[in-house]
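## tool: complex_structure
## caller: assistant
## args:
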Amino acid sequence: MKDSVKTSKDYKEYLEEALNDQFLRKTLDKFAVDYRVSREAVFSEIDGRDLIKKVADAKDNACRHMEELYAKFKEEAEKRGVIVHRAKDAKEANEIIASIAKKHEAKKILKSKSMTAEETHLNHKLIEEGCEVTETDLGEWLIQLRHEGPSHMVMPAIHLSRYQVADDLGKVTGEKYDPEDIQRLVKVARVELRGKFIEGEIGISGANFCIAENGTFGIATNEGNGRMVTTLPKVHIALAGLDKLIPDFETALTALTVLPRNATGQRITANVTFINGAGEYAIGEDNRKELHVVFLDNGRSEIAKDPLFSQVFRCVRCGACANVCPVFRMVGGHKMGHIYIGAIGLILTYFFHGKDKAAILAQNCIGCEACKDICAGGIDLPRLITEIRNKTAKEVGQPMQVAFVGKIMQNRKLFHRLLKFARFSQKPFKTQEGFVRHLPDALFGKHQFKSLPTLADKAFREIYAEHAYTLENPKMRVALFAGCAQDFIFPEHLVAFMKLMKAHNVQVDFPEEQTCCGLPVQMLALKEVAADIARQNVKAIDASKYDYIVTLCASCASHLSHNYKNFIGDECREFSSKVKDFSSFMNDVVKLDMSLFNKSAEKVTVHIPCHQARSLGVMEQPRNLIGQVAEYTPSKEEASCCGFGGTYSAKFPEVSKELLGNKIRRIEESQAERIVTDCPGCTMQIRGGLHKKGSKVRVTHIAELLADNLKK
Amino acid sequence: MSSAQTQANLVDLYKEKAAATACQIAEFSSFEEAIPHLLSLMEKKAPCELLYEEDVEKGPKGPNGCPTRVQKVVAAPQLGEYYEPLKKAFEEKGYKVVDSGLRHYLAGIDMGIALAEKGIAQSGSCMVNTNNEDTRLATMICEFSVLVLKKSQIMPTVLSMADVLRSEMSASPANYITFISGPSRTADIERVGAVGVHGPLEMHIVLLEG
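## result:
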């Protein structure tokens, strides 16, 4: 993120710039799809989950022993003639490196890729000192030529087109290049940089691992520039965060098995270099290299003590959290971090580059959990982003309205009264199909990419009595958790559920004291309110009386089952353990009694909500249910985000619009007549988008599809 | 499964994965038998482009606008018993053969030959001990990199290399070990794959019995 972005308003304008960049959009769109394919191919050869767990455990362990590992590394490295430095912050690290350059009167500095050097803005410092710094990784060199920062941790120049590159290289050499001939463009770097390598006086690299047991550090590169930088100049300085310290080779090689696969879908990078000791330097007076390792703290030793945030050190900088992020796909890396990019970038910005920047950036997470699902270190990125929001809300502050929302949400009766009042006041604006019409453009302009639904005439809680039943001998008893959106906007989802359960001899109760699940207030960084709401629900639904607590909203299901413990600990243990989303409850627990159903010829596709796919790991159940009562028609990217994201679509309508556009394109390509999903928010978003386009495709809950096909 | 069979499976897996990193693999029963193959590679390849000034006879400009070598150069440091027959065969064809002093050839050489101590089947990699600066340079500044690997030295996985790496990295006071998997590559321009951005344009594996 550029420094001139100071407020949320600046940030939104800054986002628009990316959303209007057609090249960027096309590139990132293609990348998002290709990445998944290549990653899957190389992960099929290993036990990915197991390895990720091992990386997480090993890095957690390393983090707990950071100081011991540092001491051991230092001792071992010094034995081998290496000079080890420790910098407390970015400024000190830069000064140490600048002073080494000064001592050697070195002006020509070579760099291989280092995110840590980006973190400290090392180049600025060296240039200030009169040095010429050459980035030798092609992507880094290309952005250096343009005075830009990286837009991806692994592919720093992914935002540049071949045309821009051909122009920029032309300026360097004075020649004209054919932008279509990318192979030739790459060779311009080969030719131009060889001389730089030969003349370089100091080489600076990063390090992927610092292995304490014998003071070895490892560098993974594809281009071979890392080996040139560490070999050709007499002096080599490796800059590494303290978090790169690990105990042994086993840990390094485990991480190395996962890192390239997750980063670029490669089994391994073309070169992996392991160095310890000041080795041979053929043309030096003493025939020895001068080797320095600079460890950067910059807050790391403090973060290491934090019970929650210490897990950021599991990060191996593979960049995968950006690769799968639906927001990154729309806006690119310059808008998704300051130096560190993607989900991890939103978090690290807080620690390394300032709370003000983090307060703005951390808002731009849609909460889809795709990053958590892909992370090579198993970091709970969405949770940490939520916590960063909580922190910045406290430290930087948030708008008055947010606190006001919190007060309302904390009081169920007041909240529900307000909803009923809203229902009354929206009457004049309601269309026959249940959408709001004629919203003033000045207020709602950016939200008009979809039709917005109105509240139902009667909430589920007002018509529950009409649908309630008591079974003589039910096969199980469940409590229905309605969630606000289904209770007040889509009661028909819940009515369909009641019909299905009655037909399958399942007793359903609807405990009326239940309120909002609390996810929206969590998104708004109202931690205390979220905890209060969690307690209200646990009290409202006596879990001991039921076999399951079922909800037809995947986001509620995920929040109730996974997040409550973060707010209220053990109080929710039984409650959370009994929560089920509709699809897995219907498919795995109840199981469709096919004597009750007709199979229709309707072509039906599915949208699998983020929280269902990632947080709950439910993918096949919805497809299976559809296939039993209709013609299941697959569509591409069924589990990619629709752009709703609860309060996200209200905060960032521009991004939400683009995500929805993607989803609609996929639905149209599938030629399905109906799309079903397991979430009222997604229903609202997709239905609103299709209605706005005048599409005839129906959007319903899966429960409605099943109920529609019950034999009369 | 017998251990010979297990090793044969590892060799097959290695070949498959190395090919996926754009390595070209040829199998021989001995290094002597591989020499004609290497000579033919050398003969067919275009002369090396000089990417930096070097006081040497220069030929017409190459594809990237740099002058080319008139006498092709092959570097083969630390090749042990393989060096003499190689040197003899290459010199007979008029090529220059060196095994040290590679800092004088940083503008680029045609072929660099090095011994790989281990192979890794899972990733198609070679482990090369590059403590010796000339060996390191030979694998970096050449247009064609040749690595000689014995089939018996192929290990199953990256993780299975831990003990080997530990002992390699403790052998001398200073150590520099490289896992090499294919030619130098990049996808930094529009994610289009390209080889030869800094290091070798081509990677050839000579796979030997035993």
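## assistant note: The longest strand of chain B covers residues 142-150. Chain B touches chain A through 64 residues (CB under 8 Å). Handing back to user.
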